[in-house]
Amino acid sequence: MTKRLRFALSVSAIALLFGSLSGCAPIGVQVWERDILAKQEMQLDYQAIDMSLDDHIYFSKEGSSGGRGFGGGGCGCN
Amino acid sequence: MQLNGKVPIRGALTAITATLLGSGVVHADPKGKVESSVLLYSETNRVSAAEGVFSLTRFLKKDRILNARLTLDGLTGSSPNGATPSNNIQTFTRPSGSDSYKVKAGKTPLDDTFRDRRVGLDGSLTLPVNRLTKLILGAHLSAEQDYTSFGTSAGMTRDIFRKNTTLSASIAFSHDLVTPVAGAPTPLSDMAQPTRSNGEESEGGPSESKNIFDVVVGVTQVINRTTLLRVNYSVDHASGYLNDPYKIVSIVQGQSSAQPGEPTRYINESRPRNRTKRAAYAELRHYIGGHTIDLSYRYFNDSWGIRSQTVDFRYHLPLKVGHSIEPHFRWYHQTQANFYQSYLLDGAGLPNSVSADYRLAPFHAITAGLQYLFPFEEGTHLSLGVEYYQQFGDLSPPAAMGPLSQKNLFPELKAVMVRLGFSYDL
Fold it and tell me: Best label site of B312, B326, B368, B393, fewest CB within 10 Å?
């Protein structure tokens, strides 16, 4: 239980850190500074279909799943 | 600001209006997008698979987005059944329950009749609640000969801090049916004997089910003009029949017997009926001198005792006239499930849970690949990727286990993947 708690706390701390820092000057950009961030290869869902194909392979061949998205079932993969 | 319609101004406005986080690709006047990908996957001497995905996205009125995705896959070949090698020929009942197959002495037992097809349908609808908040509703259906899955999902994203931070939360529920041709075997029961020898499949048998709940929460943060960070935490709870109906465990003679390590019988695996998985995921995307680096790390653990770490690295390297290449490297390591055992000893009694499935064993794996992206014209792209995947494990039994001690019981897995992708803006 302690391990789980530590795990959850560390994730929350990271999330909170970036959430709160975004109010500070060095983090984030103004709307007119999004030229590079608007590039196709900077989108987080860039090549989403290829990523889903990869995740399907790894879900079938390894003991772990999840993280980037849902980690549940959907196939009886062997 | 002068809105004279010249390209630099339009480009700047496009960039400004890009919501960036989870918003997809920036288009001038897109009505939608067609994306398709075909994956050919081939393991050395084992499974071969082909998978095709066709996705249609439509941008509707009031910024609504509708996506429908069709997935077709088929696979054939040999898959390890979980039994240990032997100095003698071994005979196993086929999954159909009607026939048997033989494995040569000294070879890793593989079920060579592995064959399946799958059809999957996914749909999602993105609904803006207001300027900063979106609701995403989804559903899926997946059907195989021996497995059916239905599910729904709902998620919400919220932009804050001038859209420099996006908070997201999603939940999903899936109900899966496990319907092997010969029925789902009772855990720990002896491997069934063939019912017939004429090759016909037996009819019916008990089916089983499981329910899966997923929750994912995340934060995406713009760090600066060239750097993005995403952090996700996911929890997944599955309950019900979590066994692989085709995996067995060898019960072998003990160290003091006449033939240590030789199997006396085989039983069906038995996994706990509940599993909770947790994963923390961080992804950093950085643009430097025209190149883009994508680095991600995942830490995973579950209630079965598996802990794993995954590092994934992609490098987007632009070439001339819109062409680009992307080297990719992935490293993965997992510890074993606490009920994983390569074999059980005869006379030692049966544990409540046991599985010899290599996917629950300790191992590490690497993926290395390269993808080439070709632009055809504005809004149309083609990509071709090749990847190599290999698992490494070491499961050598103690010397006292006779011939088994001479073998690595982790079944070797080497695979090549070829992927062809196509995307077209409507």
Answer: B368
| CB neighbour list of residue B267: distance below 8 Å, 6 or more residues apart | B188, B189, B190, B191, B248, B249, B251, B344, B350, B354
In a domain, A73, yes or no: no
Read off the pLDDT of each residue in B134-150 and give the average, rounded to a whole number: 94
Q: How many domains does chain A have?
A: 1
Per-state percent for chain A, helix, strand, coil, to nearest 5: 50, 0, 50
Query: Percentage of chain B surpassing pLDDT 90?
Result: 72
Between the alpha carbon of residue B327 and those of residues B36, B291, B416, the distances in Å are 21, 12, 15
Contact B234 A50 (CB under 8 A): no
Q: What is the largest CA-CA distance in chain A?
A: 50
What residue numbers bound the domain in which A12 lies? 2-61
Question: What is the tens place of the pLDDT at every residue in B251-276?
Answer: 999 888 888 899 999 999 999 999 99
> Which tens digit of pLDDT belongs to each residue from B62-117?
999 999 999 999 999 999 999 999 999 999 998 877 788 999 998 899 988 778 89
Helix (H, G, I), strand (E, B) or coil at B329: strand
As for the ipTM of the complex, it is 0.88
- Whether residue A77 is contained in a domain is answered as no
Token pair for B352 = 């409540």
- B204 within 8 A of B172, measured Cβ to Cβ: no
Q: Is B143 on the interface with A (CB under 8 A)?
A: no
Share of chain A above pLDDT 90, in %: 31
Domain ranges for chain B, please list them: 43-380+395-415
Q: Does residue A7 lie within any of the structural domains?
A: yes
Q: Contact, B40 vs B77, CB < 8 A?
A: no
Is B234 touching A (CB cutoff 8 A)? yes
Q: Is residue A70 part of a domain?
A: no
Interface test with A, best of B65, B164, B269 (most A CBs within 10 A): B164
Between residues B313 and A69, the one the model is more confident about: B313
Q: Of chain B residues 239-298, which have a CB less than 8 A from chain A?
A: 244, 246, 277-283, 285, 287, 292, 296, 298
